[in-house]
Design a protein that fits this description.
mainly beta, twelve-stranded antiparallel beta barrel
């Protein structure tokens, strides 16, 4: 399994204390309620559900150690990824009018780290990460997508389960834990909570960003969600 540094060359997306996952790391990615008047715009909290401090491994346990938080700006179009001290690490921008650059991740200086291309395969989610300004291993030119790069693939048409892959190798699996599943999930009104099973040696910040992208698609397809 590729470690974070192997995924994208000589740079790491995550902050130093959260570079890679340890064995059997489980994250809980919890989307917040949306509010037009408060402009909260679907922020997120990311906690470590597999921490030693969590004896019952309850994914809905708010006492799980916080890893990242995402606050939302500009009515949901831009999110700020922060660490546990509130330090801004990255900005994630959502572009609803573009499939090729549906999401753009930038560092605090405004430099693009990568973009996420949104595709559809038999009505299932498919995303491709395109690194910018880097020289990824495995061939390919800087600024492009290397062959067999990081992708996200939906397991069903309801977007409740997805897999994250690096060159075809499994990085992480995520599922929505607070939905009934199937066609009834189309009427879901509460924000999703995701359980993300992360393989050893994977960049947790990268997984977090991709999980937010998946949650965006899940929420945008459900008109009743608040």
């Amino acid at each position: 399994m590729a470690a974070a540094a192997e995924i994208h060359g000589d740079k790491s997306v995550s902050c130093p204390e959260h570079v890679t996952s340890t064995p059997t790391t489980t994250l809980t990615v919890k989307q917040k309620y949306w509010s037009y008047f408060k402009s909260t715009g679907r922020g997120f909290t990311v906690t470590n559900a597999s921490s030693d401090n969590n004896d019952n491994n309850n994914n809905n346990n708010d006492d799980n150690p916080l890893l990242f938080a995402l606050s939302t700006k500009s009515f949901g179009k831009r999110r700020c990824l922060e660490d546990t001290t509130g330090k801004a690490l990255f900005n994630l921008e959502r572009n609803w009018l573009s499939r090729r650059k549906a999401w753009v991740l930038k560092d605090p200086e405004g430099n693009t780290v990568f973009t996420v291309r949104l595709r559809w395969s038999k009505f299932r989610i498919k995303m491709e990460v395109e690194w910018k300004g880097l020289n990824p291993p495995g061939g390919g030119e800087s600024g492009g997508t290397r062959g067999g790069g990081v992708t996200v693939e939906g397991e069903n048409v309801w977007h409740e389960r997805v897999r994250m892959l690096d060159g075809g190798c499994l990085m992480a699996e995520m599922r929505c834990t607070n939905t009934v599943g199937g066609i009834l999930s189309s009427y879901k009104v509460t924000p999703p909570v995701w359980e993300v099973q992360v393989r050893e040696g994977v960049d947790l910040a990268l997984v977090t960003v991709l999980a937010v992208c998946v949650s965006d698609i899940f929420s945008e397809g459900r008109v009743y969600m608040v």
